[in-house]
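Encode chain A's predicted structure.
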Amino acid sequence: MGETTTAATPLLNLVLGGVPVLAAAATVVWSLAGHRTTAHTRLARPSAACALLSLTTTVTLTTDSNSYWKLAEAALLLLLIAAVTRWSPVREVRIAVPLAALAVATWPLPLIDGGFLERTGAASFWLIPALTAAAVGAYPRRVDQRRRAAVSEARRAQRLQLSRDLHDFVAHDVSGIVVQAQAARFVAATDPGQAVLALERIEKAGLNALEAMDRTVRMLDSDQEASGAECLPPGVTQLAALVDDFTAAGSTEAHLHLPPETADALIHAREAGAAAYRIVVEALTNIRRHAPEALRAEVRFTATLAGVELQVTNDAPRASPDRRSTVLRRHGGLGLPALTEHAEALGGTLTAGPHEGGWRLTAILPCKPPSQRSRSDLHDQRTRPDPHPPGR
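Encoded structure for chain A:
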């Protein structure tokens, strides 16, 4: 009877030693066969259970007869370490991965007949593949996190650009609509003809705002194969119409000073020309909203060694603001800080502040004058059709 018990003990140890291997194999098969969002993200707890089983058998049952089981078990645990590191939530990774790494590092210790140094060396040796498996799982996780962060940042930049476009272009037209509507209300009873003219200007400003919104939507619509000309923002060629519309829409008389050579430089420097248009739109919109009583505004372009200097100046407003100006001044915008960043990104500057009782905005936009461009560049630019012909 004693001999039967002695013979059964190694067999029992061998069978019990295979339990962690079967558990780890079942976990690996479940993760491969299950759905990614369920099996992969819920892999940490079964892996931790397998690691605890492995540690238990390492302490109690490891003999020379079941060392092959432990080797297979270590290989399966390495697969689980990589998978858990790749897919599981971080809070679960912090528990399951160290347990599995400890199980892999300590499985050969009961088989070593040596001192502390020998056992420490063996554990360190087997810890290397555990760390490697964790690195294999962590690398694609990090790449995926960086990709999601890049997508999130791109979406944020797109939303910010959309808000800036709406502020730069639509707010200008909407402010004109408000001014014209207020003017029509005051003159409707005494001069119906002027009210009709105001309504025509309101219609034109509304159509311009709709066009700006349509252009912004086309820029965001990735499925629509629009040509590059359709998506380009307005530029220098629209400045004259912009200033004329501003003068017609309110009581402030605006004047544009744009020498032909400076206009040519801005037309060919497309980014600088678009930035100049947006800066003028923002400056005129701020005059309309914050100084509607100003009598005169001046938009002046001057060629400099650094590029082109743009100044938008309005004189001091009249002393008695009326009710309409109060309505327009209630809320400010964030256009100037955004345009300042845009000008600096192009290598220029933008400043604004009080000037002789009024306000002055000054922007320096670097652009290469025509004499410094190559003949091929000039030929390409001149033969390319202008997507934005002059308004008037």
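Strands lie at 253-257, 296-304, 307-314, 349-355, 358-365.
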